[in-house]
Prior knowledge:
By secondary structure, the chain is α/β, with parallel strands linked by helices. It contains 8 helices and 11 strands.
Amino acid sequence: MTPPADYHLHTPLCRHAEGSPEQMVAAARAAGLVEMGISDHSPMREAFDDWRMDWAEFPAYCEWVERARAAGGASLPVRLGLEVDYLEGGEAWIEELAAAAEFDYLIGSVHYLDESWAVDDPRLVDRIGALGVEETWDRYWALFTKAIRSGFFDFVGHPDLVKKFGHWPTGDLRRYYEPAIEALVEGQVAFEINTAGWHKDCAEAYPARGFLELAAEAGVGLVISSDAHRPGEVARDFDRARRLAAECGFQETLRFERRAGRAVPL
Ligand code: ZN
Ligand code: FE
Ligand code: FE
Ligand code: ZN
């Protein structure tokens, strides 16, 4: 049995995470991981919000990952990733970012439904009610599907993040999942089970079981992630996520190196 790699790990450079490179690596070892990756929130070209590194700090980010690599050594390879915010019209910047370092993978995430509204920001949760849950979901999934089709990403993060605070539209939610999964298949893009969802108001992993079953059936690539913002969260709930993935029909997870994926048994 090969434990999945945890590729969705943050650093204090994003201003809302803690832990040194050595502490993150030690936590990964303690959790029994044999591979990990750092993927902090992507910088924007200009000042944007208060939960990401500045573009000027990007070299410090690469040094942070180098320190983690030194700590991991040959027994625990540390990959270089980035959790890239996909924004409408932001393609040129993402292209520049993708060329800024020798990345092993890029995660595509949708947090912002427009320049001033991150759908996962608890301070802005009222906007979901104001716009309506159905409309918020429509917008979120349209942008998420666009992110997949952009072709920039190796896998996409927390597919149904829009449910974070416990808002679900009525009816069969496969109407949202299906176009995204079709885009994943066509673009050969993978997605993650993000275990952080179990610790939010929605109290389920991202994405929901219904999405997982369809994605497994369609043969989409899978990664399991903790989205840890501190050492104690590395590989959190991985056993539970592996059981869930297996129940839904997955048999493999992916490893990434230099933007190429390779499957290992779940
Ligand atoms: Zn974060
Ligand atoms: Fe995220
Ligand atoms: Fe994250
Ligand atoms: Zn995230």
